[in-house]
Amino acid sequence: MIPRAIKGTIQESLKSYPIITLSGPRQSGKTTLLKQMFPQFAYFSMEPPDVRRGVMEDPRGFFEQHGHRLLIDEVQRVPELLSYIQSIVDEDSDAKFVLSGSQNMLMMEQVSQSLAGRTGVFYLLPFSLEELSEAGMEEESYEQIIQRGFYPRIFDKQLLPNRFYPDYLETYVQRDVRQIKNIGNLALFQRFLSICAGHIGQTINYAQLASDTGISVSSVQNWLSVLETSFVVYRLSPYFRNFNKRITKAPKLYFYDTGLACSLLRIRDADALQNYFQKGALFENFIINEISKYYLNQGARPPIYYWRDQKQKEVDLMIDLGGELTVVEIKSGRTFHPEFFKHLTWIESISSLPIKNKYVIYGGDQDWKMDIGHLLSWRRATEVCG
C-alpha cells in the first residue's frame, strides 16, 4: 500500500474531534485508507440497498448493537444518521465516528447542518506526485504522468488508463449522476463532459458551453454542479482583492484528475499528448492539482487563485498567504525563456500587497534562483507552498 500523506493529519485531528469526515472522488482510496487506519472500528457501507434499508428501519438499534466507534462509508446516502451521531457524541465523550463519502456538496451541506463544530473535514484526492515519488513509482516524463493519471486502482491492479477511465466514466454516469440529478439524456451528458475537458484552463463561458453541447445555459450550470459534486471538475476563482485594474471575475475550469481528462480527449498515450495542441493547459491542470493536494493533505483549503485583467494579462496562480502573495506562472516548455517572468514582474508593480515569492514552474528539470524570481522544475512544484 502506497502511504497517503494525509494520514498523520487525520490521526491528529481525531484527538480533537469526536468525528472525522473524509470526502473525495470515487476510487481515490478513502475506504482503503480508513480501514487501514482504524481496524478497530466496525465498518459499514451505506451503498448496498439492504444495508441502508436495515439501518434506517431501526437507527437506534443499529448504534446500540454496534457501539459508538464506527466507520461509516457513503454516509451521504443516509443523511438522517447524522442527527443520531450528533446526539451520541454530545452524550458520550468516548464516542468516535469516522465518516466518508464521494459526493462533495451534498455531503458537506448535511455535515455542516448536523455536525458543525464536532467534525474535522478532510478531502482525499487520487495519489499526488509526492506520494508516488516516495514509493519509487515516478514516471520519466510529465507526459506519461498526465496521461496515466493518479487513481490508485491503476497502480494497485496494474490497469491500463485506456481501460480504466472508460469503465470509471460508465460507472459514474450510470450511478452517481442519477443519484444526484435526474439527467435524461446520458449520451448528451457524456458529450458535455468531453467538451468540458476541451475547456481546461479557460474561464467558464456558460453560453459557449451551452452552444457547443446543444443545451440551455441553465442546464450547463446544473450539470457543472453535478460534476463538481462528484469530484470530476472544480472551478478556480479569480483573485480580485487589492487591485484597482478592471479584471476578469469568471472562474476557470479544471479536472481533478488529468488522466480522466485525457481519456475524454482521446489522448491514448504520452506521444499523443506530446503533440496535443492544448498540452500546456493539461500541464497547468496537473501542476495546480499537485499544489491543491499539498494543502488538502495538510488539512487546509488551498488558498489558490488566478488573476487576469481585461487586456488578457494573466498570472496562472496566486497563493494568498494572508497579507502577502506568492505568484506562479506555469509553462510546459522544457527550455527556459526570460519572458516566462514577464507577467510576474508586472503584477508585482501593480499589487497593493507585497509579493513574497515569484516562481515559474516549467517542464524542465533544472532549478535556478535568479534576481527576477525562482525557476522551478515540475518535479518540485509543491515547493511554492513553503
SSE layout and pairings?
Elements: H1 7-13, E1 19-23, H2 30-37, E2 42-45, H3 49-57, H4 59-66, E3 69-73, H5 80-91, E4 96-101, H6 104-114, E5 119-123, H7 129-134, H8 142-148, H9 152-156, H10 161-180, H11 186-197, H12 206-213, H13 217-229, E6 233-236, E7 252-255, H14 258-264, H15 270-274, H16 279-297, E8 304-308, E9 314-320, E10 325-331, H17 342-350, E11 355-362, E12 368-370, E13 373-377
Helix pairs in contact: 8-14, 10-14, 12-13
Q: What does this protein look like?
A:
This protein is an alpha/beta fold and 386 residues long. Helix content is 43%, strand content 18%. The protein contains 17 helices and 13 strands. The strands form three sheets. The chain has a six-stranded mixed beta sheet, with helices on both faces. Strand 3 (69-73), helix 5 (80-91) and strand 4 form a beta-alpha-beta unit. Helix 8 packs across helix 14 (258-264), helix 10 crosses helix 14 and helix 12 (206-213) crosses helix 13. The longest helix is centred in the middle third of the chain and has 20 residues, at 161-180. The protein starts with 6 loop residues before the first helix and ends in a 9-residue tail after the last strand. The model has no long low-confidence stretch (mean pLDDT 92).
